[in-house]
Amino acid sequence: MKDIHYEKAVAKFLIFLEEKGLRKTTERMMMLEEIYSRHDHFDAEDLYKTMVDKKQYVSRATIYNNLEVLLECGLIRKNQFGNNVTKYEKAANFRQHDHLICLDCQQVKEFCDPRLQQIQKMIGEMMKFEITQHDLLLYGHCEKADCENKKVLNN
Ligand SMILES: [Zn+2]
Ligand SMILES: [Zn+2]
């Protein structure tokens, strides 16, 4: 689905590639399109599998390299969910949000609370610090009935 976010992302990416002297390759543009059509948190392997399923052949190395390029361009956001879990998501022009992570099924939920922005602003003023971003991860146990690995309590 092509929307305004995607159109803006393409424009930003093309300018970035030009400035960095990088080529506008089909693979790069396909990756950007794929990323901007999804609404989840994904890693390189997820992206690779989806693209292979859609017969868009891009090598794993190309995916890894271009995730770095997209990150540098600010078009994706990199999240460290737990020790060895790195997930990406599209970033440009999206509302600020934070994450809840279930320690049992690793499912990630998003939430947005404008009060966090106010706190960030207050802390910045108090500490004489120009805060440009924040990362907040809340860990715990989701309440889904089918949450995998959830420890079953004996009644
Ligand atoms: Zn869970
Ligand atoms: Zn997110």
Could you characterize what this model shows?
This protein has 155 residues and is of the alpha+beta class. It is built from five helices and five strands; from the N terminus they run ααααββββαβ. It has helices at residues 4-20, 26-37, 44-53, 60-72, 114-127; strands spanning 76-80, 86-90, 98-102, 108-111, 137-140. A hairpin with a 5-residue loop joins strand 1 (76-80) and strand 2 (86-90). The longest helix has 17 residues, at 4-20. The structure holds zinc ion (2 copies). One zinc ion is lined by residues 102, 104-105, 107, 142, 144, 147.
Order the strands across the largest sheet as they lie in space: 4-3-5
Specify Rg, calculated over alpha carbons: 18 Å
Find the CATH superfamily of the largest domain: Winged helix-like DNA-binding domain superfamily/Winged helix DNA-binding domain
Which topology of the largest domain does CATH recognise? Arc Repressor Mutant, subunit A
Identify the overall geometry.
flat
Level-1 CATH class name of the largest domain: Mainly Alpha
The end-to-end distance, rounded to whole angstroms, is 48 Å
Bound molecules: zinc ion
Number of helices: 5
What is the arithmetic mean of pLDDT? 89
Which CATH architecture of the largest domain would you pick?
Orthogonal Bundle
- Which bin fits the share of residues in helices? 40-55%
Write the layout of secondary structure elements.
Blueprint: H1 4-20, H2 26-37, H3 44-53, H4 60-72, E1 76-80, E2 86-90, E3 98-102, E4 108-111, H5 114-127, E5 137-140
Parallel strand pairs: 3-5
Antiparallel strand pairs: 1-2, 3-4
Helix pairs in contact: 1-2, 2-4, 3-4
Bound molecules: zinc ion (2 copies).
Protein name: Ferric uptake regulation protein
Cofactor: Mn(2+); Fe(2+); Zn(2+)
Binding site for Fe cation: 98, 134
